[in-house]
Amino acid sequence: MTIQAPLFLATLTLTLFLISLASSADERQPRSVVSPLIAVENSWPPYADEMGEGLSTSIVKHAFSAVGITPKIQVLPYARVLYDIKNGNIAGGFNVSKQAATEAIYLFGSSPLFIAKSSFFFRPGEGAQFTGIDDLPDDFKIGQIFGYEYGQTFEHEQHRFRGMKVSSQTQLINILLAGRVDAVIMYDEVAKYTLDKMKLDTTSLYKGFPNQESRIHLAFSLKHPDSETLAEALDKGIEIIRANGVYDKIVAGELD
After folding, report:
1. Which of 41, 52, 69, 199 is the most exposed place for a label (fewest CB within 10 A)?
2. Could you count the other beta carbons within 10 Å of the beta carbon of residue 32?
3. Buried b or exposed e, range 95-104, using 16+ CB within 10 angstroms
4. What is the value of pTM for the model shown?
5. E strands, the chain, where?
6. Is the pLDDT confidence value at 150 over 70?
């Protein structure tokens, strides 16, 4: 017994030491980093539809998965996504355009999910005389989505216009066709997708001059303790899935 007691104590000490190391590792890698709460908007197909599914969500899931993170995805109206990011209720949310106004409020990584083009859309037979935002007359009525960013040029000029804001892309097209606004700003691929879903031909709208190219990101909360870690992880994940071909398969519709 006198020989086994020191051995038992040594084994017990080693076991407790290993448990302590495991606990320390858990503290260094909080569960919120392994499974962060991330929100996605519910009205921007094909990037994110009413169920939150689409190209953006696939990119975010695969990029995080590549670095061992499985986010919990919450589907919300876009304005609520922004509210929850700003107030630290969630770690982050997408799809947010990275520009001066948003960089002052949220934390962004260096890699966008993708780049999206937006344009001014008019009723057929109207709008051809306008070649840029400077051509639009004062008090021009422009339809927009609640909370959306439309670029610094539009932000600088929007005081001249009257806006009508709605919650969905379908509503945006409907208020234009009904004559309640003179034009709407839509992202080009979103307009195509929404017209098809509404069983309307692309000629139902006249695509006018371009608005801007937006770098679309997952924006992180400045109030969330894991934001910097998650932003770095997402950048690394995007780098990985671009290198291994997963990103291209998602964009091509070959992978959900």
Report:
1. 199
2. 15
3. bbbbbeebee
4. 0.78
5. 37-41, 72-76, 92-97, 106-107, 114-122, 141-145, 162-166, 183-187, 206-221
6. yes
